[in-house]
Amino acid sequence: MNEEMKNCSYCAEGELLNAFGIKIAELPMSKVILFREQSHRGRVIVACKKHVDDITMLTREERQQYLEDVNHVAETLHRLFHPDKINFGAYGDTMHHLHFHLVPKYRDGYEWGGVFAMNPGQVRLTDAEYQELVSLIVGEL
């Protein structure tokens, strides 16, 4: 693992990842991470298993599989939480590893009609609540 990957939350995992998320599953081309801040119940990150900065750096086959993974997770969130919309965010200005935030949103809920906050710091769960949410999502993946 090169130095850049050692400092990447998604590659190194451990404390770097635990600061903001909980790895809950691996799919063919991605890792699924429950975002610790749960203002949007079920918010997850789908991070590419390959350390690339941009989707254009994947081969056609890798890109197709990665997008299939993202879609699979989105379908799972729709089945579980019935959001009015899922916002998909792929930024990477500071985290140079391809990843999508999948953020369930509701017409009568938090931040409807606006861009979701990266980390609003509003809702943290207990360990038991995190485990319950992880089990729910993993059970449907």
Descriptive overview:
The structure is a single chain. The protein has a 5-stranded antiparallel β-sheet, covered by helices on one side. With 141 residues, it is an alpha+beta fold. A hairpin with a 2-residue loop joins strand 1 and strand 2. It has 5 helices and 5 strands; from the N terminus they run H-H-H-E-E-E-H-E-E-H. The chain starts with a helix and ends with a helix. The chain has one domain: HIT family, subunit A (2-Layer Sandwich). It is globular and about 45 Å long. The mean pLDDT is 94.
Briefly, what is this?
This protein has 141 residues and is of the alpha+beta class. It contains five helices and five strands; from the N terminus they run αααβββαββα.
Topology, pairings included?
Elements: H1 3-6, H2 9-12, H3 14-18, E1 21-27, E2 30-35, E3 44-48, H4 60-81, E4 85-89, E5 99-105, H5 127-140
Antiparallel strand pairs: 1-2, 2-3, 3-5, 4-5
Q: Per CATH, which architecture?
A: 2-Layer Sandwich
Helix content: 25-40%
- What gyration radius follows from the Cα positions, in whole Å? 15 Å
Tally of separate helices: 5
For the record, what is the CATH homologous superfamily label?
A: HIT-like
Label the structural class. alpha+beta
Enumerate the strands of the largest sheet in spatial order, edge to edge or round the barrel. Answer: 1-2-3-5-4
Identify the overall geometry. globular
Mean pLDDT: 94
**What is the strand tally?**
5
Distance between the ends: 29 Å
Biggest sheet features = 5 strands, antiparallel
Under CATH, the topology can be stated as HIT family, subunit A
Strand content: 15-25%
Would you list the SSEs in sequence order as H and E?
HHHEEEHEEH
- Uncertain segments are none
Number of domains: 1
CATH class: Alpha Beta
